[in-house]
Amino acid sequence: MLSQRLLARTLGVDARSVRVESVELVDDHIVIRLRPRIRHRWRCPHCAERCPGYDAGRERRWRAIDWGRSKVFVVATVPRVECADHGVVVASVPFARHAARHTRAFEQLAAWCGVEMSASAASRLLRCTWRTIGSIVARVAEGLSDEELLVGLRRIGIDEISYRKHHRYLLVVVDHDRRRLVHAVKGANLETLGAFFDRLGEDGREQITHVSCDGAPWINAAVADHCPHAIICLDTFHVVTWAAEALDRVRRETWNEVRVHRPRHVHRKPRGAGKVLKDARFALWKNPENWSDQDRARLDYIAATHPRLHRAWALKEGLRTAVTGHGPGAVVALDRWIAWAQRSRIPSFTELARKIRNHRAAIIATIEVGLTNALVESFNTKIRLIARRAFGFHHVGALIALARLTLSGQRPHLPT
Ligand SMILES: [Zn+2]
After folding, report:
1. CATH superfamily label, 151-235+372-407
2. CA distances from 173 to 153, 170, 343 (A)
3. Cα 52 to averaged position of ligand 1 atoms, centre (Å)
4. Is 47 helix (H, G, I), strand (E, B) or coil?
5. Residue 130 CA, ligand 1 centroid: distance in Å
6. Quick check: 251 and 281 in contact, CB under 8 A?
7. From the CA of 35, how far away is ligand 1's center (Å)?
């Protein structure tokens, strides 16, 4: 007979809480029959109180971590109990969460895989669907304590991140000082943000000194309402995005001008100047330090043939340099940029100059406080990547759970 301790250990449970009654091979699966020890029987899963039995219950089955090539299932007969506070419920078991179909150790492993691996690698390794991993991730994230994340917040960033088409947004709050995600919920609007500030409590709200955001009026309104003393900073990441959008409008205008000179039915694929403009799209977006030789050649071509587009590109780069700078020099650079863009006679940029002028105080606050772009930008990128992976979960709850497990400093550990 195999040792009780050894068997309990492979299942990730304490041998003092369960008795292994049998181990069998059934259709290539290993089936381990367990019986919770007397101290652990007839307990309510919600309050852990010992309760009178309601019935003998029935046999239940949980998936456990594989033994080599074999799937392992734990089987136990679990009674229902009658809790004074929670009514008739299935009694708790020491090796799995309430209403789970996998053991705690399996869930811990699945959460780790969900965070660390690609969806296909995780589901092949664990031999279960990505959707199952999604619901396990959500369950493990539910067990995290969020309250600790909210203690001592001073400088926060508020962002709205679209996770699917058709304007579906997450409200995301980051802690600039501890560089972690502290809050993520479905729906980015005045109400959800108000609920976050309510969670902080009066003391928590008073401690907030700076709030960085994308300048959306509803965020400004909520901050003015709940933290009137906090200084609003504009994330320079968003400012650079605005400039990139303005540049793209100019690129499209230029491209359309080139296309007009060519009969539509002759060639569907852009050629010549049109092709270069189309291919230059990414070079125009990239920071020059990341250019390839080909990108550089495209920009040279644009400088020679489309001076207006080249000027628009220089304006975008100028704004990026100004807002990512530091100290008084950066403020001067910003004001010069506004004057330059106003004179540019490129409508997208004169319009942008007006927008920047309206947000000037918030941009200068960001430069002066030294809030870097990097945190909000990297969280924005990471959540978009997570959203793409979490797409297979078919549920926004799983996306939020994965984001919290990955970015709030509470990454799951492997079961030990
Ligand atoms: Zn109870």
Report:
1. Ribonuclease H-like superfamily/Ribonuclease H (3.30.420.10)
2. 11, 10, 37
3. 11
4. coil
5. 32
6. yes
7. 21
Kindly give the distance from the C-alpha atom of residue 360 to the centroid of ligand 1, in angstroms, as a whole number.
56
Output the six-digit token pair for 233. 């900073």
Question: What pLDDT does residue 271 have?
Answer: 61
Cα(50) to ligand 1 centroid in Å equals 8
Residue with tokens 């089955």: 61
Show Cβ contacts of residue 147 under 8 Å, excluding neighbours closer than 6 positions: none
CA of 99 to the centre of ligand 1 (A): 14
82-133 pLDDT per residue, tens: 999 999 999 999 999 999 999 999 999 999 999 888 888 999 999 999 889 9
Domain-by-domain residue ranges, the chain? 4-142, 151-235+372-407, 236-369
Ligand 1 center from residue 126 Cα (angstroms): 33
How does pLDDT run across 171-189, given as a tens digit for each residue?
A: 999 999 998 999 999 988 9
CA of 394 to the centre of ligand 1 (A): 32
Distance 49 CA to ligand 1 centre (A): 6
pLDDT tens sequence across 336-381: 999 999 999 999 999 999 999 999 988 988 888 877 667 877 888 8
What's this model's pTM, rounded to 2 decimal places? 0.77
